[in-house]
Specification:
Blueprint (H helix, E strand, L loop, with lengths): L1 H21 L4 E4 L3 E4 L3 E4 L2 E3 L2 H11 L10 E4 L5 E5 L2 E4 L4 E9 L2 E6 L3 E4 L11 H4 L7 E6 L2 E6 L2 E7 L2 E14 L2 E9 L15 E13 L1
Antiparallel strand pairs: 1-6, 1-16, 2-5, 2-16, 3-4, 3-16, 6-7, 7-8, 8-9, 9-13, 10-12, 11-12, 13-14, 14-15, 14-16
Length: 221
């Protein structure tokens, strides 16, 4: 009888431990003004550039000093990020956006926006200014495309990961600036996701891609 009770207890304990590892407990999680920054890297078809002087000149030339930093490691940020988790839904209070939670694996949740944003058809073959914001993310927003008399329209739902780190959460961020020609230049600060390094194999001879990744910790109130 004792062995049976012990066996049942171990099953219950294992189930609870597994659930705790996967799910994020309900509540409000907020940033506290700290951020972990990696060094900015300038990518071209020929390779990567990490020389601080070259990158500093590039930032100056492209007026990017407000988006990128030459610092790395622990830093401060004025961005205030706040998420409220409740069951399988999440609300981001600083932008009033609603999301659904899809748990992918232990400690890793994918947050999918409930609302759909529509845009004219985007060519996802060769890398360009239209699709770089999608291709640079590891978790590309799922598309639902419709064909009309005036062309193709695709609906997108933003999605990004949140990683459990003990009692806190980690929010991955990408800042990037992409140029292809004089008429093709695209930048985006604070894109929420991990950097998809597969995009580097798509760079052409005239392309430059400046990337700086960071992590914002979120703490439960």
């Amino acid at each position: 009888m004792k062995k049976t009770l012990l066996f049942v207890s171990l099953i219950i304990l294992a189930a609870c431990t597994k659930e705790d590892n996967i799910t994020i407990s309900d509540g409000t999680y907020e940033s506290n003004g700290t951020i972990l920054v990696t060094p900015a890297i300038l990518y071209t078809k020929d390779g990567s550039i990490t020389d601080v002087k070259i990158i500093s000149d590039y930032l100056q030339r492209k007026s990017l000093n407000g988006i990128f930093t030459l610092k790395s490691g622990n830093d401060t940020t004025s961005d205030n990020v706040s998420f409220v988790f409740k069951g399988t839904t999440v609300s981001r209070t600083d932008t009033r956006t609603q999301y659904d939670v899809v748990y992918k694996e232990a400690g890793f949740a994918l947050i999918v926006e409930q609302d759909t944003a529509w845009a004219s058809g985007i060519n996802m073959t060769e890398l360009n200014c239209q699709n770089v914001a999608l291709k640079i993310r590891q978790n590309v927003a799922p598309r639902n495309c419709l064909y009309t008399a005036v062309g193709q329209y695709c609906g997108f739902k933003q999605q990004f990961p949140i990683v459990k780190n003990g009692s806190s959460l980690n929010l991955p961020v990408i800042n990037f600036h992409f140029t292809q020609t004089s008429s093709c230049e695209y930048r985006e600060p604070n894109a929420l996701d991990f950097f998809n390094t597969d995009i580097l194999s798509e760079l052409q001879a005239t392309d430059t891609l400046l990337v700086q990744t960071s992590t914002i910790p979120l703490y439960k109130k």
